[in-house]
Design a protein that fits this description.
Helix content: under 10%
Shape: globular
CATH topology: Jelly Rolls
CATH architecture: Sandwich
Number of helices: 2
Number of strands: 16
CATH class: Mainly Beta
Order of helices and strands: EEEEEEEEEHEHEEEEEE
């Protein structure tokens, strides 16, 4: 197994009561539970990464690479990621990529993701849909747009296939998304839809996506 210094994904969990960080393990594809994805460890644009490609026949929001042994309730999840439409993807593919958190045994989870091809689209409506919060399975992007247009998505300058720093801060039902080291969040959610419960964390890709992940860090309160 690769050392923490060279592995594309290193998970760090910090106990809030002890205020110390304790590394769990260097995360390579064998330390991820792939669900409806193909995974491999490769070099992508100058860095080691885990490649995660959604299965072509997978339903929306079912393509995940779950981090083994990581439990999370509140705190911060950081990762470098790059998403782009996979070879042969359908025309409307956006390179959907992000992080799922608080995964439960019954399959429910919440997630925040990017649509990289929207970030610099020559269409303001598409640009406004560059980020998204959703909850699986009952609150997807379509329901969010129907019930509260524009509330759960926003604009941020992202590009397909380009490394992007992605950080989520989560507390109770509140979440903040920060991209590329910005001081201000590009997406604010004050009413996440699921009851806050400790659960797993996963690398998330949407239909027709070829995704890359590196430098995953999870810190916070596991339960």
């Amino acid at each position: 197994m690769s050392s923490a210094a060279t592995s594309p994904i290193t998970v760090i969990c910090a106990s809030l009561c002890l205020c110390v960080a304790a590394p769990l393990a260097a995360q390579t594809p064998d330390r991820l539970d792939g669900r409806n994805v193909a995974m491999s460890q490769i070099d992508f644009k100058g860095r080691k990464a885990v490649q995660v490609i959604a299965n072509a026949d997978a339903a929306n929001a079912t393509s995940l690479a779950v981090v083994k042994g990581a439990a999370f309730l509140d705190g911060t999840i950081e990762v470098d990621l790059a998403g782009q439409p996979a070879a042969g993807a359908f025309g409307a593919a956006r390179g959907y990529i992000g992080i799922a958190f608080r995964l439960q045994a019954d399959g429910r989870y919440e997630y925040i993701y990017l649509r990289p091809t929207n970030g610099r689209a020559d269409d303001q409506v598409r640009r406004n849909h560059s980020t998204q919060y959703s909850a699986h399975p009952d609150f997807d992007f379509a329901k969010a747009r129907q019930e509260a247009p524009e509330k759960y998505e926003s604009y941020v300058d992202v590009q397909p296939g380009v490394w992007t720093k992605f950080r989520i801060e989560i507390e109770g039902r509140k979440a903040r998304l920060y991209v590329n080291g910005a001081d201000q969040p590009c997406l604010i959610v004050n009413d996440m839809k699921l009851e806050p419960k400790s659960g797993a964390v996963a690398l998330w890709v949407g239909p027709g996506t070829e995704g890359y992940f590196s430098n995953l860090k999870i810190s916070g309160k596991p339960q």
